[in-house]
Design goal:
Helix content is about 45%, strand content about 20%. By secondary structure, the protein is an alpha/beta fold. It is globular and about 60 Å long.
Length: about 325
């Protein structure tokens, strides 16, 4: 394929009920020269049927199928192997984007020559009356790799948020190729690893205004469940992340950011556990597993060097903000 401006890679696993809305938002974009790559990750036949019944006349759609599941990271890597666009982005198959999404991305990435662009993300579900912005960019922001990682971790407050997911981000294909940026396969938390890997390899990162990615919070998705693999993959994720910082000689510089991100995902694990495991005995068992997992990725002597006394106090007294509440 020639003259492709942007490739969007969509991993799909048994999401036939949602895929139509996703693809409708792709094929009706205001931008031309868009390549849509669907990686069917060993889905039931219904998903392929929808593609051939409704979208068979769209020449810009490429369909790949994995006969055995590769999970989102592996599916995205397979899409990366064949993408032709000058820019590459990702979309989950139950999400959708604004109709000017690619047009805005191409305009700002072309004008800034950035390696990575980030777009506002809205969370949609079937219960909230209005969508919620997970991150919102009202103007163009230009960031260094260090600033982007610090905002992502929460150690910098610059008035904007950066979410760890890869789905609201766009990457210059040349940047992905020269840095050999690939997704980790078969672990739940490959999105945050990819963001850390790519942020620290980038020369320029921008926030793109004027359009949004819509993340649909779907019951029974990977992020709406809990089992032992979530805990195991948490350990695997942060073991690999720390090793990456050490391998590039940046651990001392970014240890605080490492622990801030780690804290965030510990909170996610505990929240998911209490949301999706009703049995009291099972909760206690999993909590002990989480505590053991934390010991594998947190060096507490090291950790104490990078947090303030007030942060340490909140670990000991999480619900007490005023000492007088205790004394009087």
């Amino acid at each position: 394929m020639n003259n492709i401006d942007i490739s969007v890679i969509i991993p799909a696993h048994n999401t036939a009920l949602y895929l139509k809305k996703c693809l409708d938002s792709m094929v009706n974009q205001t931008a031309a020269n868009v390549e849509i790559i669907i990686v069917d990750d060993a889905s039931e036949p219904t998903l392929k049927s929808i593609l051939y019944e409704k979208y068979k006349n769209y020449q810009n759609i490429t369909y790949l199928r994995n006969e055995t599941p590769m999970r989102p990271g592996g599916a995205r890597n397979r899409g990366l192997d064949i993408a032709h666009g000058r820019y590459i982005t990702f979309c989950d198959s139950d999400d959708w984007v604004d109709l000017n999404y690619f047009e805005q991305i191409i305009k700002y990435m072309d004008s800034t020559m950035a390696d990575i662009g980030m777009v506002s993300m809205m969370r949609n579900d079937d219960y909230s009356p209005k969508p919620i912005y997970k991150c919102y960019y009202d103007r163009l922001y230009t960031l260094t790799s260090s600033a982007a990682l610090k905002i992502l971790s929460g150690s910098y407050d610059m008035g904007i948020k950066i979410v760890p997911a890869c789905i609201n981000k766009v990457y210059r294909r040349e940047f992905i190729s020269t840095t050999n940026s690939r997704f980790e396969q078969d672990i739940y938390f490959q999105g945050i690893l990819y963001s850390v890997y790519t942020f620290l390899r980038a020369q320029k990162i921008i926030c793109i205004p004027g359009t949004a990615y819509h993340h649909y919070l779907r019951i029974n998705s990977i992020t709406q469940s809990f089992d032992q693999k979530h805990i195991n993959d948490f350990v695997e994720c942060f073991t690999r992340m720390k090793a990456y910082f050490e391998n590039i000689g940046k651990y001392e510089e970014y240890a605080f950011e490492y622990y801030r991100i780690c804290e965030h995902y510990i909170n996610i694990l505990v929240s998911e556990l209490f949301e999706y495991i009703p049995n009291e005995t099972a909760k206690k068992t999993y909590l002990l597993e989480i505590i053991n997992a934390i010991k594998n990725v947190v060096n507490f002597d090291d950790y104490y060097k990078y947090i303030t006394a007030e942060q340490l106090r909140h670990h000991i007294q999480p619900h007490i903000d005023n000492t007088f509440d205790i004394l009087y």
